[in-house]
Design brief:
264 residues, alpha+beta, N-terminal domain of MutM-like DNA repair proteins, 2 domains, 4-stranded antiparallel β-sheet, DNA-binding
DNA sequence: TTGATTGTTACCGG
DNA sequence: TCCGGTAACAATCA
């Protein structure tokens, strides 16, 4: 579900959808109800995405912070909405649509200081206008850690997840085990540009797309998810046909072609 | 029923 | 201190 583009997509869509929205808080486990009282539900000023984090800014400096984690999901219903399915943490009801949130990693009301703490520990997000890629470059250039690990570190670069890491490194022909300090500046510049392009495409279509769309016969909507990737969970390399290797890095499976992405 | 999974954090041992 | 490994948590589907 997540990866940074998803949350930017929600921020964008919800901002349109939520005009004059009211929030109705449902909390089957009783975990969120007290916190929810802290926000003025009628005064939602703006919705902001940073990396994989989503912030709803309410009047009075109260901020609803959502992180979808692995399983978090927004469901959009036409009004009148069906009964909540499963543990709905937040239900936002507008004039025409209702949005339910299930299974988030984080769903809490925070103040401006806590919000700032979260922003401060995030690296630059390629989807944001205020992103400073040089911050990411400095961290990567100074690190002996493998680039496959660094790309998963949200304090270095925010928004990339497990699928994009394998796909981006394959497109750049960089092996995930390459130490950060062996990445050249031109390579990093390409990496940043590619991340920005792919994430932007992801926001547009609400899918992770790393193949060349010109080769696609069917529409994106009717194409199975996995056919929009190049090597993630694939047995063979789309470039050379060779066998894809898979191993764990940052406790997650990473995919690479030993031939096209030679280890240094 | 089991296992896997677009994620993060805390904790522990080397 | 730094690193890697592990567990916990969330929900759904094959």
């Amino acid at each position: 579900m997540p990866e940074g583009h998803t949350i930017h997509r929600f921020a964008r869509d919800q901002t349109k959808l939520i005009a004059q929205q009211k929030l109705h808080i449902t909390s089957p486990q009783g975990r969120f109800a007290d916190e929810a009282k802290l926000i003025d539900r009628r005064k939602l000023n703006r919705i902001e995405a940073a990396g994989k984090h989503l912030f709803y800014h309410f009047a009075g400096g109260r901020i609803l912070h959502v992180h979808l984690g692995l399983f978090g999901k927004f469901r959009v219903h036409e009004n009148p909405p069906p009964p909540p399915r499963g543990a709905v943490r937040v239900r936002m009801t507008g004039k025409e649509k209702t949005i339910d949130l299930n299974g988030p990693n984080t769903c809490e009301v925070i103040d401006r200081a806590e919000y700032q703490d979260i922003l401060d520990r995030l690296g630059p997000d390629p989807l944001r206008k205020d992103a400073d890629p040089d911050r990411a470059w400095k961290r990567i250039h100074a690190s002996k850690q493998p680039i496959g690990l660094l790309l998963m570190d949200q304090s270095i670069i925010a928004g990339i997840g497990n699928i994009y890491r394998s796909e981006i490194l394959h497109l750049l022909r960089i092996h995930p085990r390459t130490p950060g300090n062996e990445i050249t500046k031109p390579q990093f510049n390409k990496l940043w540009k590619l991340a920005k392009e792919l994430l932007t495409l992801g926001v547009k279509h609400n899918r992770i797309i790393t193949i060349d769309l010109k080769t696609l016969k069917k529409s994106i909507e009717t194409t199975p998810r996995r056919k929009l990737f190049r090597i993630f969970k694939k047995p063979n390399c789309p470039s050379c046909g060779g066998e894809i290797e898979r191993f764990k890095m940052a406790s997650r499976k990473v995919f690479a072609c030993p031939a096209c992405q030679p280890s240094s």
